[in-house]
Structures are given as structure tokens and as C-alpha cells.
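Next up, a chain.

===
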Amino acid sequence: MSSTGTWFFKRRALAFGIMASGSSLGGVILPIMVNKIIDHSGFPWAMRGVAFLLLGLLIYANLTVRSRLPPSPKPWSFMEFVYPFQELPYFLIVFASFLFFFGMFLPFTFIILSAEHDGMSKSLANYLIPILNAGMSAHAATARLLRFEDSDTLLVSIFGRTIPGYIADKTGRFNTMIVTAFLSTVLVLALWLPARGNIPYILFAAFYGFSSGAFVSLAPALVAQISDIRQIGVRTGAMFAVISIAALVGNPIGGALVSNEHGQYLQLQIFCGIMMLAGSLVFVASRWSLAGPKLCKV
């Protein structure tokens, strides 16, 4: 991820988006692949198949990925990861991402259980995760899912990562992040929370997969925009180290809310929406710290 930022400047968000589309592609393939192998050969061979696939991809990546700037070995210093937090824009980006991460992955974890709770069949609910990762159009998602088809979803999986990146390079990365973050929040509170029945869940999975996917490509692009090119790796790593804590504890908190409500998902959905709303507001503050209230490309 850090090496990508060294090769691009004007189209850096698009480059990050194309790179991040690989994770979306994997998110479409792996759930379907694992389910099919488990049915055919059992759980152990499903895990071996995933391991062999990842091993091959990692070997290729390690042999081909390189940075534009040659590495300059120097003594490791913990404070090098701390100093960036003294800059207000960087601190606000990390804080916003931390709050947003608390809620962002809850739909990925609980949407199948929530859909089954509200009456969706298990065979249909299993396709919600590939649709979330694909970020396809609502019409295509509805048509394919209601026919139980899993082909032709791979090409559209790129769109949720690349289109926001392309737009961000034209209109401003902070501006695009704010819009997509608020859109994800609205989808959680206005579509997932009141969803009952198959169609609302399918629509939510399609649209939320697209809007939330923008975060994956835009967050490192925001850090790169305000950083010296030689510090992109350190700053990106420090950001993901912090927000990984939110991703780690968010799901257990969500599970505890479901248990506290005796199997209902209302508290979980409200918690998800509120945390994402808080993160969206802090993204606004981070933009304000750079350009104030001016309506301009940031």
C-alpha cells in the first residue's frame, strides 16, 4: 500500500482505489469459494484451498512490488510513529477513521444473521457478503441474487473502489471522503435499520458495499496528501495500527449489544450508525483544519 503512494501524485486516489479493488475482488470470490469447497470436500480442504491461493498471490506480490524511492535503512524509533499525531489534520484523520471503523465492519459481520432474523432464507442470505464486497449496482445485485447466480459479479467489484478514487482526484479527496462517509451513515440508519424482507437487505448490501468501499482507498490517500512522500509509509502504518483497534473491538461490542437485546439488532444498528456519523463529522473537522469553510478542492 505504501509503495503505491510513491508512484502517483495527481491520480493517487485512483491508484489506491485500483489497488484496493483487489481486496474487494477477494471478498467476492472467497465466500463463494469456501462455501462450494466445504460442500464438496469439507472444511479442512476449504481452508487449505484458501491458504494455497493466498500463498501464491503473496509470492507474486513479494517478487514484483517495489517502491519508487530506494529504501534508506535507519535505526527504528517508536517516536517516529508518534510525532505525526502532533499535526492536527493528521490526528483528525486518524481519529475520524478510528470512529468510522467502529461501525464500518458491523454490517459485514452481522448482515447475514440480521437478514435471517428478519425472514430471509439462509441460501439467499449467504450471498449478501459477496454483494457487500462487490459494491455492484442495486439493480444488478437484486436480479442476480433473486436468481441465485454468482457469476459475472467480479467485474463490478472494481467499481466501489475505483470510481470514488477517480472522483476524489477531480473534486478533492477530503470532499469525496466526507460525502461517501455520510452516505454510508445514511444507508445504515435509513435503510438497514428499518429493513424488513429480502429487497431492502439486497439494496442495502449493494449500496453500502459501494459507499463504504470508498474508505479503503481514500483513507491512505488522505494521509498521503498531507505527508512528505518519505513519510507516507510510516504515517499510513501508524494510522492503520490505531484504527485496527476499533475494527478489533467493534464486532464484540456489536455482539454484546445483540445479546443484551435478546437477539434483536436495533441497538447494534443504532450503534453502527452513530459511530459512523461521529467519524463523518470528524472528517469534516479535518477538512476544516486544512481549508476552513471554503468550498474548494481539498
